[in-house]
């Protein structure tokens, strides 16, 4: 499995879009702008929905109504972030393969997506009276922690370096 992931990273690194974005002066920042816009929209939607779930805001409508309203924004921004994130990843895929911050970000992303579309969705789509605070509050807190982990993992990428020696050892 590990060598399959490394081969995939090498393919991304050597792809035409990986080279194109990496070799362009303006394309990486352009793609990153869309990635960050998606992050802002997704973060805002997640925060709004979880504040409502904890009964700390947006009290003019039910949690299910708000969940229905923010769902297109969450899905659209998540799709934008995944597509732009893949393009950004492709510029340094082999380097990211050995980066613990990237690995942590991907772990949090997988957990956040699974949690959001299973447990979190079940609670936010239910009638407000169905679940008490003992369920709603922990569900909201876990959601916020998972998505915060994704963001912090992404932010850490700028500070965690993978040595050239460790990457070259992977390529052998």
Can I get a quick summary?
The chain is mainly alpha-helical and 172 residues long. The chain has eight helices and no strands.
Give descriptors for this structure.
172 residues, mainly alpha
* Poorly predicted runs: none
Ends distance: 16 Å
Percentage of residues in DSSP E strands: under 5%
Instruction: Bin the helical content.
Output: over 70%
Global Rg? 19 Å
Based on Cα principal axes, name the global outline.
Answer: elongated
- Regarding quaternary structure, how should these chains be classified? single chain
Instruction: Give a count of the beta strands, DSSP E runs of length 2 or more.
Output: 0
Class by alpha and beta content: mainly alpha
Element order: H for helix, E for strand: HHHHHHHH
Number of helices: 8
Mean of pLDDT: 90
Q: Biggest sheet, open or closed, and with what strands and sense?
A: none
Report what the structure shows.
There is one protein chain. The protein has 172 residues and is an all-alpha fold. 80% of the residues lie in helices and 0% in strands. The chain has helices at residues 2-14, 16-23, 27-53, 63-90, 93-97, 100-124, 133-156, 164-171. α2 packs across α4 and α3 (27-53) packs antiparallel against α4. The longest helix is centred in the middle third of the chain and has 28 residues, at 63-90. The model has no long low-confidence stretch (mean pLDDT 90).
How would the blueprint of this fold be written?
Elements: H1 2-14, H2 16-23, H3 27-53, H4 63-90, H5 93-97, H6 100-124, H7 133-156, H8 164-171
Helix pairs in contact: 2-4, 3-4, 3-7, 6-7
